[in-house]
Amino acid sequence: MRRKLSLVAGLLAILFLGSSYTLVPTSSLSYSPDVDAGKNELLFDMIMDGMQRAHYSPAIFNDDFSRSTFSIFLKTLDRNKRFLLAEDIEELKKHETTLDDAIRSRDLTFFYKASSVIALRIEEVSQIYPDLLNRPFNYSIDETIELDFEKRDYPITKKERKDSWRKSLKYQTLSNTNKKLKAQEKAKEKSDTVAIKTFAELEIDARTKLIKTYNSYFKRLAKIKESDRFSAYMNSLIGVFDPHSGYFPPKDKENFDIYMSGQLEGIGAQLQENDGRIKVTRIVPGSASWKQGDLKAGDFITAVAQGSEESVDITDMRLDDAVKLIRGKKGTEVRLTVLKVDGSEILIPIIRDVVILEETYAKSVILENNKRTGYIKLPKFYMDMNKQGGRSCAADVKLEIEKLKAEGIDGLILDLRNNGGGSLGDAVKMAGFFIKEGPIVQVKGRMGAPYVMKDNDPEIYYDGPLVIMVNSFSVSASEIVAAALQDYERAIILGSKVTYGKGTVQRFINLDNAVTGDQIRYRPLGAIKMTTQKFYRINGGATQLKGVASNIEMPYKYAYIDIGEKELDHYLIWDEIKPADYTKTGMYKNLKFIQEESAKRMANSNKFQLIDGNAKRLKANRDRTLMPLKKEAYQADINVIADAAKKYENIHKDSTGLKVFSIKIDLEAMATDTAKIERTKEWHGNLVKDLYLFEATEIIKDMNSASVGMKQPVK
Fold this sequence. Notes:
Blueprint: H1 2-17, H2 36-54, H3 63-78, H4 86-92, H5 99-105, H6 109-125, H7 129-132, E1 144-146, H8 158-190, H9 199-222, H10 226-238, E2 246-248, H11 250-261, E3 263-266, E4 269-274, E5 277-283, H12 288-292, E6 300-306, E7 312-313, H13 319-326, E8 333-339, E9 345-351, E10 353-356, E11 363-369, E12 371-377, H14 393-407, E13 411-415, H15 424-432, E14 438-445, E15 451-455, E16 466-470, H16 477-487, E17 492-495, E18 504-510, E19 527-536, E20 552-553, H17 591-603, H18 606-623, E21 626-628, H19 631-646, E22 659-661, H20 664-669, H21 674-687, H22 691-705
Parallel strand pairs: 12-13, 13-16, 16-17, 17-20
Antiparallel strand pairs: 1-21, 2-19, 3-10, 4-5, 5-6, 6-7, 6-8, 8-9, 11-12, 11-22, 14-15, 14-19, 18-19
């Protein structure tokens, strides 16, 4: 009990005294396999106690909690019901209502039993697929396959499981063979010299490729460690609290930090595990690898050495383990043994450096459509979590605004489509750029009254017409910005019916900081991402579940498919609190006129009508999960689907007529960077085809016509 109380006290101290995004780094100590069981018990104890005592909405440890954990973990182990048998489920179900009791007694029996049985079943199935793929399938049998795993039952016998695999492999082979036939037909139209293969020949090619695919798949499965499965089990327990809390093993936390900051220290190569080898798929422009020049996409890295030390063979090594060897501190040398495409092997020395993932940062251009509109694309709300004064999205967006204003603009578009959120503090700062000062968002913890996060800067960095673009994948911090500026009537929100609907705040807790004495030997322990707060609009309503409704809704590819927080399990409820004290800008006085003008354009646009038709087609295809496995029936089915798709294949291929210009200062900065120039050209090419962006510029024109600006503040 004394140990438990000290751990919990440590966790709570870290949680409530620390910043929501800042972790104090600790040194990593190695550990040996013989301490894994002790480490698992320690993590189990720390995480469950910490979650129960500090989570925004703590779970009740009862039979319902146990059933939910059981269900989540089974899906983690065998989501598609490809390995486990019905008898395994029945055996494991003995624990279905006792996992809550296991938390109290620190009993991991269920975890070890489940891990053992899934490992056994994977080994059994690894012997099945080669035999099934060694001979042609019988495509004359009139049978079907159910693609929705929720509608499947676990196989009762091994024979039934093998038949399920037979159908799955047959479906994949039939699908791939059909694609090869279609590609062959298109190639024949362009050239008379194309060698034509029969269905039988292409079917052999498809099975041969599938054997290689599954060889790699089962090699990856064989590399799954007990620690990986234990992380999955902890996340199954945590997932009952809410869908955004989770346990991050050390390597996952490191990758999260890279995602948030947009930078890392290493060589700047994107890697992929390919048939037991580590393949280079992309060289990041401007990176250490790019500057050194010898490493190319398509190369295979076979061994890694730290400077002059002995090389480590990375053949058949897990990708994440290989990445650990290749990444390293700026200024250190790594020597890569590389197999080139031509079969030659060379040694490539690279001095590691900071790798900047430029595509994750804010960027801007000028759009011309009779009016000059500034456009800022923000992929995520990034910040450097490990460096005081590091790069942040708020500072970058402010800089882009100033650059655009210097060029002279009639309106501004902030594009938050597909923005998965991030830094809450940066979202507050960013929303404040467009108002004089005042509340931006209300935040409420588990206990106590809500507090208001305000913009205290009286300067307005842009006061002209403003459109914020969103879609169903605009999440969290994106929704804070959109909601605040909508409540102030400062910006028109344009996009999908509603945004994602994530209205919760998470904090990271470094578990290494909560252990002392003998427990230090278990480091590194990783971190917990824990939901500790909910945020509310300044009008009092939560964005949780409901999201932010667009002022102007546009036809959207996923309009008829359910997407968002409400589709997740164990989400927190929607509620509302007292509104904050704020003053509206009065910019919505002509909103009805602007909405009507936009509605007319979209109603008269053949392209937008096609987008809506395509959305309905996608919904119908998604709902259809029973597929034929008879060759003629399958091909007839696929032909119907393909013919229906032809109508929509050119929706986004034509130019809208938008003119796109880089800002002068940006042109000067990249004058000698040929790679960046090419990336910029490609980006501009995509922008001129963006129907949604074109409509946003039309709305900016309407706002100018209606003299929309921050002129008449009203209560």
